[in-house]
């Protein structure tokens, strides 16, 4: 460990993007450690068998896992709990759960829901993540049949909507709940805004993000949250 807290991530993991968005919003200085997807178990051996990203390791050796509890803990420790403060805690908790359930499940279909989109995604992932020379090429071509054929197709079939329509329906519901104010949190983003933003932002390295950009109100909110990031 160095003099800064460390966030262990995969660059294309939506849960990692949630934490990155939180940390950038509150302006916390930290060290980002991008792990090799095929060596997670070894690189996260200190996390007591968690073996998933993101993982936070503080300068005193404290380790945090599981993205939403991590966000709450870091907000409390480094931001005086400002993002979790709410005049309506029941509404906040309901919609934080809603975002975690629905936005999370919509990320794989938009990225892997079609054969060619799955190939484009796995090729892009192989370039963004820290694979070794041979494993990078193997993942680019062997990964997309698994993501598309086994995981994404079943989710799309179960939902019944095209991935773009699913996202637009979710953004319609989200923007309707926000209403006339700028953010779910009112005049400034709260924890629910940051979580929702993080899931959407995880799609931004991929060409499929253009399908979300077609949603005018959703992107207007997204851009407002992005403008609050400090680093």
If you had to describe this structure to a student in words, what would you say it looks like?
- The chain is built from 10 helices and 4 strands.
- With 231 residues, the chain is α+β, with helices and mostly antiparallel strands.
- It folds into 2 domains: 6-83, Glutaredoxin, CATH 3.40.30.10; 86-226, Glutathione S-transferase Yfyf (Class Pi), Chain A, domain 2.
- It has a 4-stranded mixed beta sheet, covered by helices on one side.
- α1 (14-26) crosses α8.
- The longest helix has 27 residues, at 133-159.
- The protein is globular.
- The protein starts with 5 loop residues before the first strand and ends in a 5-residue tail after the last helix.
- The model has no long low-confidence stretch (mean pLDDT 89).
